[in-house]
Predict the structure.
Amino acid sequence: MASNTNETAGPAVSCRGVGKIWAAGTSRAHEALQDIDLEIEPGEFVVLLGPSGCGKSTLLYLIAGLEQQTSGLLTYFGDAVTAPSPDRSLIFQETSLFPWLSVWENVSFGLQIRGDSEPDRRAAAKEVLQRVGLAEAGSKRPDELSGGMRQRVAVARALAMRPRVLLMDEPFAALDVQTRQKMQDFLIDVWRDSGASVVFVTHHIDEAVALADRVCVFTARPGRIKETVKVDLPRPRDPFSPECEELRKQLTQLLKDEVDRAFEEQENMAEAV
Ligand SMILES: Nc1ncnc2c1ncn2[C@@H]1O[C@H](COP(=O)(O)OP(=O)(O)OP(=O)(O)O)[C@@H](O)[C@H]1O
């Protein structure tokens, strides 16, 4: 895999005392994250779970290098994160596919920008489209695909760049329940094949239990990691097993107070407007 980072330097991503204040130093200053300590190992699947507005997306943007933290240290394979890199691909809830390009062109777009040759682009796009089960859909446009297929194209486009870390911001939230479950199974297969670490944001406790090696539960804003829960269960996981049921209970309990606090804060903000 393409990488010029120091691979012997330990975790794929390390956050030490990371904080983020939006519009720091202005009257609009707004603390989103506080004192985040988190290490993500190569190949690990970490889920970030927390109430609305607790800073989960903000943390993904910091890891992606799209924003800079206002305190603490954030490293990627030992190097400070200062800018975005295709090594750390970000996938959103709404896919950002180019509607006027075919699936092939969407998937190979980043490779073209990087300067890969036409044969290399074709080979890489073919491989990742096969991997996401869309080998036959290369000539279609995004509006000819279902929501689930579009998200698979988005995953293929990210994988084509051979990322070491996939950052996923509620990627299946817009899908119906059945499609979401299929996409979770699909993601687990793709993740295992790729060897990448995944940092996955969700509001859904079921999704966290189905996917994670580790779930980081956030407090209400400013987001801190309230507790980290290890999910030491083989995959695929039976959602009706007593172990999954127990984990759901534990996570629901951990989240409850934080969701109540987040609601209170939002009500206070609405009253102040
Ligand atoms: N670009 C920005 N400028 C100023 N404030 C921002 C910006 N982006 C996010 N925020 C604020 O930072 C806080 C955390 O937002 P963020 O989107 O990271 O939370 P979240 O946990 O991902 O929320 P949700 O689950 O609702 O998507 C919120 O109060 C939000 O309003």
